[in-house]
Amino acid sequence: MQNTRRIAIIGAGIAGLSMAVFATQQGFDVEVFEKRSEISQIGAGVTLWPNAMYVLDKMKLTKAISEIGVQPCSVQQMNQQGQVLSKLDLSQLSQQCGYPSISILRKDLMLCLYEQVMQLNILCHFNTPIDSQDITKLASQFDLVVGADGRMHSQVRAAIFQPPIEPIYQGFINLIGTSPTPASVKNNPIQEFRENGVRFGIVQATADSCYWAAAWACDINNNYTTKQCLNEAQCRFKHWPKAINTILHTANMHSCNHIFVHDLEPLPYWHQNNVVLIGDAAHASLPTSGQGASQALEDVWHLTNLLNQHEAIPDTLSHFYQTRINKTTTAQTIGRHLAKQFFSDIPQQPVKMDPKKLRMLWMQGLTSPNMLS
User: d(Cα 184, Cα 87) in Å, to the nearest integer?
Assistant: First the structure.
């Protein structure tokens, strides 16, 4: 991309801030535009799998992230009685991939990224909602406009696609939050309980706190409050293991949120002229994929490296899409497949978790000799 130095990023979430940091580290002149008045604290936690940690290592953030978060020891799939049905040793996965997995509160990850933004003197315009006219203006002022403005109401996606492509409801609700870690949750496992179309996940995120998600199939109810959702979860999981009940009754209410979960169909392209989508705005997947943040970080790494190859804008953005579409579509497909299995009445079978196969899937494309490191 010839003389492409100035980048406008719309959205200051994980994808937007990461893009701002890495692109600035690579010598680009970046500005961020965010509709909120400050960095978002919304969201409970994130597990950064080895592919995400690969990118964060290139951003020189491995040490900071590892000091804030927790390295989980395993993933345990369990039934309603708390019986372990299958287990993945994450130390084996780390050895296979060359990078660890780190679980972290979302607010801590956001603050870590924003601290880097401030240290790099990246200009952030808060209280700046962006509409289609603004996008046109930014596209004339900057060499590249990056839409990192989320799955649900992406103004950049709406500007690229006419009629706008809307997210699709996938039939279940997620109640998320943080709580003190129950004494029974030891040695930092990721625990996933599933039975009879209901799911509960627990992830240690700091020395003394965890984030969690309760999920079940339902119709959308726009009058439903988070408090009502928490009350329903307490009833639904009343006869499940003690740790779940402890978490639900000690939840930090300010951290809780209920989400009627949507995703996107794979898009036929992610760009128009010098405007491009990344992260959930481009390829939102279900939380059952476990890859939302990781795929956003991969976008950042690939796009920035391709920009450094100084190709013309159409070629760069087309190359970016072709590089990423298969892997992001796989994450979307896996998320839907698992959700269909989890939120049905069919007997639950543990998901097969093989470290070698996970390495092949997650690390694919990250060590290509054609890419800069």
Answer: 17
Contact call for residues 283 and 266 (beta carbons, < 8 A): yes
CB atoms < 10 A from the CB of 66, how many? 16
Mean pLDDT, residues 11-35 taken together: 97
Q: Which phi-psi region, left, alpha or beta, contains residue 188 (left: φ > 0; alpha: ψ -120 to 50)?
A: left
Give the CATH number of the domain where residue 134 resides. Answer: 3.50.50.60
Residue 45: its pLDDT value, please? Answer: 94
Q: What is the pLDDT of residues 168-184, one digit of tens each?
A: 999 999 999 999 999 88
Is 256 a domain residue? no
Q: Two tokens at 165?
A: 């492509």
pLDDT at 187: 78
Structure tokens at 73: 């020891």
> Which tokens sit at 35?
């509709």
The mean pLDDT value for 228-245 works out to 96
Q: How many CB atoms lie within 10 A of CB 262?
A: 16
- What is the Cα 36 distance to its own chain's centre? 19
Residue pLDDT, tens place only, 126-148:
999 999 999 999 999 999 999 99
Give DSSP secondary structure letters for 185-238: --S-EEEEEEETTEEEEEEE-SSSEEEEEEEEE----TT--HHHHHHHHHHHTT
pTM more than 0.85: yes
> Rounded to an integer, what distance in angstroms lies between the CA atom of residue 25 and that of residue 34?
21
pLDDT tens across 331-360, in order? 999 999 999 989 887 777 778 888 888 898
Domain, as residue range, for 268: 6-168+263-362
Domain assignment present for 209: no
Number of domains composing the chain: 1
Q: Is the pLDDT reported for residue 371 higher than 60?
A: no
Sheet holding 198-204, edge to edge: 84-89, 74-78, 189-195, 198-204, 209-217, 168-180, 257-263
**Residue 83 covered by a domain:** yes
Residue 85 lies in a domain: yes
Q: How far apart are the first and last CA of the chain?
A: 18
Cβ(40)–Cβ(17) below 8 Å: no
